[in-house]
Amino acid sequence: MRVIVVFESIWGNTERVARAIAVGLERHAPVELVTAEEAPMLLEPYDLVVVGGPTHAFSMSRPSTRASAVQTRNAPAAVSRGIREWLGEVCPVFYPIPAATFDTKVVTPRLPGSAAKAARSELRALGFDVREPSTTFRVHGYEGPLVDGELDRAEQWGVALGALAATTVSGDHGDGESSLA
Ligand SMILES: Cc1cc2nc3c(=O)[nH]c(=O)nc-3n(C[C@H](O)[C@H](O)[C@H](O)COP(=O)(O)O)c2cc1C
Q: What is the pTM assigned to this prediction?
């Protein structure tokens, strides 16, 4: 089973979540953990694709929101390609490869919108099997840190996703309903 986790992160919170998810997934299969800047456009070789990024302005980040983080909040240098731009270049798939998405959001105030839900819609349009619900992990303030317990939750989510993908690869495709809801 081949698994890839693609992430984007400015302050490192989403990266820490991505790493924890990868630890959980690795109970089932080796994981390639890559940034959106490094990620391949061709995903046909993978049996599970996991994508995550920070929620900016109610959705996936844009070059303008990343630039604003640098200018107004002293963020480290902005990444040149976030998950939005990467998904815009990913090749459609002919077989519905399982995919799941996650994001990070501030714990307070509770704002609408989600990078993970936006990424999930993009993956669906590209032909991926996105029956798993997207998941949000919470941070304190824009810079973090993560809320206590979120890394454990991320690892457990990775374990559950990996188990599901292993079942799919082994040929038991189930009844089409999510088992992570
Ligand atoms: C320009 C900008 C816009 C943001 N908009 C939202 C938002 O709409 N909703 C939200 O919950 N968090 C928002 N945030 C907070 C980010 O979600 C938070 O910075 C991110 O989860 C931290 O992850 P990172 O360390 O991986 O960059 C925003 C942050 C920035 C810089």
A: 0.94
